[in-house]
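STRUCTURE:
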């Protein structure tokens, strides 16, 4: 399954690239720098890149996509005209399975309900050489760790927790579908050279503490924004002593502090994991260049000199933590929970304990949790809360079943959900959630925003290690501290839980009957991709039309958005998720969250053709039907939030020609450029005030469109008066070609003769 020849090629160039980078930078290198510089599109580094400043082109080794985001990524890729993907890529069906009854029933229901989407993903994968992991095979990040991640590699994935692969020493980064499409088409991938945060782990985990507590502690220190624009590199004796999957948990939740990604240097634990998961050959190759798969020795000896920020955590003193509710950075050590819960009036009765997810479903996690479940019968206890398990992969599920763990969990009344995201992504039909009662749950997932798990805004979710979740579910009490407290058993005796114990890896090895993998056809040229024209969920894309070669005259002002306008305001999520593969249907949410400057209402704008007020998408469709282009005007940091390309594709699809704002969020600005839109900024921000509700707008200067050269906008007001304003742009030569061609993809299409 894994591509050994690709890994070999990466490792062969590693020593030379690292040496060139060391010379260019002029000092010893961190691991992060080694991996990044070893993946420059340009080849050897010739100069150092400034952290937090320079944009750099990289050539990632792999792409991974989950089913919700893969749809648009692949629909775009199909337009690129390539016969096959340029780098090894995989699709994972994990986000669309609702957890309700049990794994078997839930999986069958999902396979029926989303058949069309699954069939589409399977056939596109088959055609273009993409590995396909069927529904039930597991969660993208666990499957990637088990099969594809490798020390020193670089990958991108269309999911924010792609960062999980840092547990195997990768630089793995979450992106939007358009970026995945580019890399699969063989284009460079751009990233601002990240800042570096070093986390030194001293001491050793013991007793009730687990790797999860490291990241819960780090989240408490750095907060949800503290890692923004940075890669977190962990090192020290505590890091080396930890299991590879434990490292994965820590990297996974790096997404919760906003970090670009997190990583660890190659060590014995990674070698053990590679061998246990059938990749002895990769371990051997990594051993051969081990010195390059960790930082230069001077770096960890004097981290303050090489990292932008350094944090030190003594694992021997670390306490188990509970983070939440409603935010993953509200960290409370278990010993303080009694007073903190009382002070905040949090309900202390634990209703449900949920373990698993992409964050914490390793064999080690489950074996340690099961050591606690066993004590329920041994000590005459009764489990107070409901308990659920979502295994991260079929390989883990099969192995823990074989080893009797699922039987033990069954004895405490546990429900095993499908190997999928389920409750972690709100795909949990929890009985009674609609009553919206205040209640407490504990889980070993990563996010705990309001409504995330069961849709109930009053469910308070606390994040903890699987071990602590199990103990709290047994006790049924959020304030139970298993280190000091006792429980009353059925006979009325006071008993204490023994600390968890388990196995880093299965003693009898991993096993699986059907991992759920479908290899692509060797030659996919004959494979037909079927999308029914009547489908509500999928729609093939038509290439966007090329620029007509003239200035744009008579554009109607569609909306002048006031204040915050994030990608959620431009293209809402929630119920719209199901249309992620159907551009026309999802376009019915275009800008419905944006506030109209002129009446302060959302989704209510003036149709200049009729003078009537109506929803944004319908108004824009009326302009489109009349063959009239339009322009969207926005405020500061327009398009902040996710990298969702729908926020750029929808306006493009419906005929908006330009977006003019005070400032852009960088990723959204790039997405607009990629889709062939004009992304413009006011040269003088005060000109925002000059835009009137009935304006027809001309964009002048496009025939001489050039980098660094402002364009002119003529605002033709309804009273016959005019204003002329200057607008800036950040298009380089290449991006101007995207605009002229109608989209970046149209250029790739030409390259491949489509
Ligand atoms: Fe899925 Fe939750 Fe992970 S949604 S990919 S299990 S963060």
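SEQUENCE:
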């Amino acid at each position: 399954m894994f591509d050994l020849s690709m890994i070999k090629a990466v490792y062969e160039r590693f020593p030379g690239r690292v040496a060139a980078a060391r010379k260019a930078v002029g000092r010893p290198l961190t691991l992060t720098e080694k991996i990044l510089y070893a993946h420059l599109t340009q080849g050897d580094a010739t100069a150092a890149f400034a952290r937090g400043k320079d944009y750099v082109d990289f050539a990632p080794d792999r792409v991974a996509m989950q089913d919700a985001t893969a749809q648009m990524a692949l629909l775009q890729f199909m337009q690129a005209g390539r016969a096959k993907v340029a780098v090894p890529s995989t699709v994972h069906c994990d986000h669309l399975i609702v957890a309700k009854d049990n794994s078997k029933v839930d999986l069958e229901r999902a396979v029926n309900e989303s058949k069309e989407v699954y069939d589409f993903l399977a056939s596109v994968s088959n055609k273009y050489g993409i590995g396909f992991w069927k529904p039930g095979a597991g969660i993208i990040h666990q499957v990637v760790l088990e099969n594809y991640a490798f020390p020193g590699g670089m990958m991108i994935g269309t999911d924010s927790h792609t960062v999980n692969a840092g547990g195997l020493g990768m630089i793995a980064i979450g992106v939007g579908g358009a970026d995945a499409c580019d890399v699969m088409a063989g284009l460079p991938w751009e990233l601002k050279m990240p800042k570096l945060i070093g986390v030194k782990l001293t001491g050793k985990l013991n007793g009730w503490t687990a790797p999860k507590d490291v990241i819960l502690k780090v989240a408490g220190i750095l907060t949800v924004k503290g890692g923004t624009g940075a890669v977190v590199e962990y090192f020290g004796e505590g890091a080396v002593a930890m299991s590879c999957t434990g490292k994965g948990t820590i990297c996974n939740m790096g997404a919760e502090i906003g970090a670009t990604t997190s990583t660890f240097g190659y060590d014995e634990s990674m070698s053990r994991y590679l061998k246990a998961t059938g990749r002895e050959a990769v371990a051997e190759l990594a051993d051969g260049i081990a010195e390059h798969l960790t930082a230069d020795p001077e770096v960890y000896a004097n981290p303050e000199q090489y990292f932008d920020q350094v944090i030190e955590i003594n694992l021997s003193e670390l306490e188990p933590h509970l983070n939440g509710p409603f935010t993953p950075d509200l960290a409370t050590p278990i010993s303080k929970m009694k007073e903190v819960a009382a002070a905040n009036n949090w309900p202390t009765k634990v209703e449900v304990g949920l373990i698993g997810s992409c964050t914490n479903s390793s064999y080690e996690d489950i074996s340690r949790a099961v050591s606690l479940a066993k004590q329920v019968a041994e000590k005459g206890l009764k489990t107070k809360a409901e308990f659920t398990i979502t295994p991260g992969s079929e390989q883990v599920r099969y192995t823990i079943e074989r080893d009797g763990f699922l039987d033990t969990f069954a004895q405490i009344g546990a429900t095993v959900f499908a190997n999928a995201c389920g409750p972690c992504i709100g795909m949990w039909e929890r009985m009674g959630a609609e009553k919206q009662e205040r209640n407490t749950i504990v889980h070993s997932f990563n996010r705990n925003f309001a409504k995330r798990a069961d849709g109930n805004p009053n469910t308070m979710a606390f994040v903890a290690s699987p071990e602590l979740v199990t103990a709290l579910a047994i006790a049924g009490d959020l304030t139970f501290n298993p280190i000091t407290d006792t429980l009353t058993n059925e006979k009325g005796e006071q008993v204490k839980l023994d600390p968890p114990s388990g196995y880093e890896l299965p003693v009898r090895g991993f096993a699986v009957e059907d991992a759920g993998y479908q290899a692509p056809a060797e030659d996919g040229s004959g494979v037909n991709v079927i999308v029914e024209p009547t489908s509500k969920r999928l729609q093939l894309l038509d290439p966007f039309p090329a620029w007509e070669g003239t200035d744009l005259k008579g554009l109607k002002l569609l909306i002048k958005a006031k204040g915050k306008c994030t990608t959620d305001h431009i293209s809402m999520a929630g119920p719209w998720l199901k249309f992620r593969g159907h551009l026309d249907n999802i376009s019915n949410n275009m800008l419905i969250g944006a506030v109209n400057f002129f009446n302060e209402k959302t989704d209510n704008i003036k149709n200049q053709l009729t003078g009537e007020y109506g929803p944004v998408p319908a108004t824009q469709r009326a302009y489109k039907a009349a063959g009239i282009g339009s322009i969207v005007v926005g405020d500061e940091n327009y398009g902040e939030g996710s990298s969702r390309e729908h926020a750029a594709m929808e306006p493009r699809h419906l005929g908006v020609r330009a977006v003019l704002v005070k400032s852009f969020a960088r990723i959204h600005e790039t997405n607009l450029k990629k889709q062939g839109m004009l992304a413009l900024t006011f040269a003088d921000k005060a000109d925002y005030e000059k835009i009137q509700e009935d304006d027809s707008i001309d964009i002048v200067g496009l025939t001489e469109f050039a980098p660094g050269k402002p364009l002119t906008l003529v605002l033709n007001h309804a009273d016959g008066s005019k204003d002329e304003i200057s607008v800036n742009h950040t298009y380089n030569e290449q991006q101007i070609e995207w605009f002229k061609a109608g989209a970046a993809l149209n250029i790739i299409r030409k390259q491949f003769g489509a």
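REMARK: The chain has a mean pLDDT of 96.
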